[in-house]
Design a protein that fits this description.
By secondary structure, this protein is an alpha/beta fold. Helices cover 40% and strands 18% of the residues. It is built from 11 helices and 13 strands.
């Protein structure tokens, strides 16, 4: 079996490559031209260069492939058009290339943010990608990761969590909208990678959508305290009323800075992301731990 991993030179992509190689799968990666991270891919991985927004540049990578894991995406941007062009349009191009190459299976790595009651531009683009996959006519599986935490904590993947952890550690007094009561079910990057791999290798997963999360549900305030305990710091949390957070969008500057839109910075504090993982446990044999 040959599996193609789009965006495979990223942190999660490289880990997925190692997981698949360990399961006896031949791995091919599609990454951007000039990506310096391609040189650190595991030995034995075949590398193709192309951009998912350019259909002609990616077709060769799909030739002879049995299974596609589509990870290539953009997570942070202050340009709303970038999400639609890369996440939605790029997924459409991947679907078309897979169909042209008679690929048997496609696994799409979406986001739990598509379940939020109010979607950010990022969430809209990932949901549009899901629609392209479901309407593709291919044998598909969709996975929706929650908040990803690298191991050791704060290293490897999990850019949203890393920004949050940096914010909590940076200020002796830090503010959390609503007192940090929003609930999350963070997932360790190692567990996430295993879940993604299993989603493409299990016949029971065809035509299904799975949430990939960890075992423990935590509030944002509890996560902050875990971060501070690990750093041996005793910072003070002050609740930030929602009307102030919405009006001033202060979290954009404190946490994300220029690459993050205000609505995206606030959404993570406003909406719960603590999904049920029973289906993934039953169908995939998914057995995550708790990263914090």
């Amino acid at each position: 079996m040959i599996a193609l991993v789009t965006g495979g030179a990223g942190v999660v992509g490289k880990a997925l490559c190692r997981e698949l190689l360990g399961r006896g799968v031949c791995v091919r990666v599609l990454t951007l031209p000039g990506d310096t991270q391609a040189g650190s891919l595991p030995e034995g991985v075949e590398v193709y260069f192309g951009n998912v927004t350019d259909p002609d540049s990616i077709r060769k990578a799909f030739a002879g492939v049995d299974l596609v894991y589509h990870l290539a995406a953009i997570l942070l941007s202050t340009n709303p058009g970038a999400f639609d062009r890369i996440n939605a349009g790029g997924t459409r191009n991947v679907v078309l290339a897979a169909k042209e190459a008679d690929v048997s299976r496609l696994v799409y790595v979406s986001s739990i943010s598509v379940t939020y009651p109010i979607l950010t531009e990022y969430g809209k683009s990932k949901l549009a990608g899901e629609s392209f996959v479901k309407d593709s006519g291919l044998s598909w599986t969709i996975v929706r990761p929650t908040l990803v935490i690298g191991e050791p904590v704060g290293h490897g993947g999990g850019i949203e969590f890393n920004m949050y952890a940096d914010y909590v550690r940076r200020f002796p007094v830090y503010f959390l909208p609503g007192g940090g009561k929003c609930l999350k079910r963070p997932v360790a990057s190692t567990d996430l990678v295993k879940g993604i791999a299993l989603a493409g290798l299990s016949e029971r997963a065809v035509g299904k959508t799975y949430a990939l999360a960890g075992q423990r549900i935590m509030s944002m305030a509890e996560m902050a305290q875990s971060i501070l305990n690990a750093a041996k710091k005793r910072h003070l949390m002050l609740p930030l009323p929602w009307w102030i957070a919405r009006r001033l969008a202060v979290l954009k500057g404190w946490i994300g800075g220029r690459p993050v839109a205000a609505e995206q910075a606030l959404a993570g504090f406003l909406f719960d992301a603590a999904p049920d993982i029973a289906d993934a446990e039953l169908d995939l044999g998914y057995r995550p731990g708790s990263p914090l």
